[in-house]
User: Which sequence fits this backbone?
């Protein structure tokens, strides 16, 4: 199995090709899109792509201003901008509805796309998403985001790495990968996306309830910002959703607790396929 990388409309993406799913435009395999969080890049899903590319048509995107993707022209971003980019990618590259898996800001993008463009989404998995973020939590994030815009040359990796991995030696490899992506990424792209994320409180209950396709809300038990209560509340709002709380995990569960996350995703993907078949 090998990495294949392409660019479409300024969006860089890659997938893993194999003998079972080797025609990425014509295969009948269910398409799945993986969307990373702020400051990261497509490779943060390496432990998911390695597993699910055997059966599904998997795409991992570098979101605008991240990895090898271009900055958006608008310097003041909104979640709708990212949802528009994702919808265009689905239309132009995939050509059919897809399951969307997002992490952190990627999770919010996945949810907004499901709300704004329901016809292109056949299931949405939101990992470490936020909902009804408190004033104090929002203010803390906004202070960090403002500092990034004021000084693009500052150290951008020490504090996130400490929050995400708690200096646990077990996750040194994963932490250093994230540090590399943060340190070497597009600083302006990171700062603009973080500024947008900092002012999000979450998607409203009314909008969330418009999502009718299967939904998974997953977060880490120890994630202080994308808390278990947030995922549980969001899952309760939707008729066709459930929540998974990964024990002892923090914000980067897809990297540190990949086995648990992959088990939850595998069950969810099967549910999405059944839902699509039953509602065809």
Assistant:
């Amino acid at each position: 199995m090998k990495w294949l990388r392409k660019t479409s409309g300024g969006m860089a993406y890659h997938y893993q090709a194999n003998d079972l799913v080797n025609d990425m435009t014509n295969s009948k395999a269910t398409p799945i899109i993986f969307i990373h969080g702020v400051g990261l890049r497509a490779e943060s899903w390496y432990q998911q792509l390695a597993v699910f590319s055997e059966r599904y048509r998997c795409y991992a995107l570098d979101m605008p201003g991240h990895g090898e993707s271009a900055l958006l022209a608008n310097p003041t971003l909104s979640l709708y901008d990212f949802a528009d980019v994702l919808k265009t990618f689905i239309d132009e590259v995939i050509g059919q509805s897809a399951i969307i898996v997002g992490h952190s800001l990627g999770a919010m993008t996945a949810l907004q796309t499901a709300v704004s463009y329901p016809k292109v989404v056949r299931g949405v998995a939101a990992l470490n998403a936020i909902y009804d973020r408190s004033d104090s939590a929002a203010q803390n994030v906004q202070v960090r985001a403002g500092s990034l815009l004021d000084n693009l040359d500052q150290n951008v990796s020490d504090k996130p790495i400490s929050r995400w991995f708690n200096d646990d030696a077990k996750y040194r490899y994963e932490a250093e990968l994230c540090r590399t992506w943060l340190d070497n990424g597009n600083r302006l792209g990171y700062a603009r996306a973080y500024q947008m994320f900092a002012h999000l409180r979450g998607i409203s209950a009314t909008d969330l309830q418009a999502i009718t396709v299967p939904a998974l809300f997953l977060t880490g038990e120890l994630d202080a910002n994308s808390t278990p209560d947030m995922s549980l509340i969001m899952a309760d709002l939707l008729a066709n959703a459930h929540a998974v709380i990964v024990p002892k995990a923090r914000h980067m569960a897809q990297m540190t607790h990949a086995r648990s996350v992959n088990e939850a995703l595998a069950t969810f993907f099967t549910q999405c396929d059944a839902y699509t078949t039953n509602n065809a």
User: Anything to note?
Assistant: The mean pLDDT is 92. The longest strand covers residues 2-8.
